[in-house]
Design a protein that fits this description.
The complex is a heterodimer of chains A (229) and B (35). Chain A is mostly helical. Helices cover 71% and strands 0% of the residues of chain A. Chain B is mainly alpha-helical. The chains are: A mainly alpha (229), B mainly alpha (35).
């Protein structure tokens, strides 16, 4: 019987073509952002649309991946799933941080102030703190199985904030300063394609970062031959 | 315009530095493993 293909080799095989794809998508995204029409109400600053929501979706994905990795770890007891959870949390926190930087820049340009203690913004800050705490917990208590189990439960529980964060504007019943979630037809003419490509590029970049970070985590753990067992 | 440039520069710059750090770390660990 043949030996199962080592996880590291599988990751490396995906990572290389994915990296080329990400580079091409980012180039297409940059060109489409430049070509995209300028909003009549907000002006050129509205083009932050092509970076801010895609970063938010990437952050959500990262945190969901942390929960999936954690759940798989609790179920299968394989270290590679715990390593996937760490990778998802780190990439998620990076995307979330950038979302929380681009958001206030957009707010300053349109609302005139950097921050508002609005329900969406406050919950996003809480979400960021929850997963930042996850990473701190992992960095302070390295390697124990007990930590991995606790982190898995913590990572799963943290995802409860995601639907709340997404739907809080509707739940706030019009009292939120943050614009409503985008829906079909809510973008101006000519903005649909750049927005779709921006999301696709951000998703591809997210996957590439997770694959790379997962590989680093496996190598740090000294996976024997990269089997991830 | 300056706000827009700042938003894109911070995002692309941060992701670029993060990618560089990850690639460097992966190479370092791979070299250590090969030795």
């Amino acid at each position: 019987m043949s030996r199962p293909e080592p996880a590291l080799e599988r990751l490396a095989r995906v990572r290389r073509p994915l990296g080329v794809g990400v580079a091409l998508l980012v180039a297409l995204w940059a060109w489409l952002v430049i070509q995209a029409p300028i909003d009549r109400v907000q002006g050129v600053i509205q083009k932050i649309l092509y970076v801010h929501p895609p970063l938010a979706y990437g952050a959500y994905l990262g945190f969901v991946l942390t929960a999936i990795g954690g759940a798989l770890y609790l179920w299968r007891h394989r270290e590679i799933y715990d390593q996937l959870a760490v990778a998802g949390a780190e990439v998620g926190v990076i995307f979330c941080t950038l979302m929380m930087v681009t958001g206030p820049i957009w707010a300053k340009g349109t609302w005139g102030h950097w921050w508002s203690w609005d329900a969406r913004l406050t919950l996003t800050l809480l979400l960021w703190f929850v997963y930042l705490a996850y990473l701190l917990l992992r960095s302070f208590t390295e390697g124990s199985e007990r930590t991995a189990r606790f982190a898995a439960v913590y990572g799963i529980a943290g995802t409860a904030l995601i639907p709340l964060n997404y739907f809080v504007i509707e739940l706030a019943g019009g009292r939120s300063v943050h614009p409503e979630n985008l829906q079909r037809g809510s973008l101006g003419a000519g903005m649909g394609w750049p927005f779709a490509v921006a999301n696709f590029a951000a998703f591809a970049a997210f996957v590439w970062f997770v694959v790379l970070r997962w590989e680093v985590e496996m190598r740090r753990a000294g996976a024997p031959g990269g089997t991830g067992e | 315009m300056s706000y827009l440039i700042a938003a894109y520069a911070i995002t692309l710059g941060t992701l670029g530095v993060y990618a560089w750090l990850l690639i460097r770390e992966r190479r370092r660990l791979a070299e250590r493993h090969d030795r």
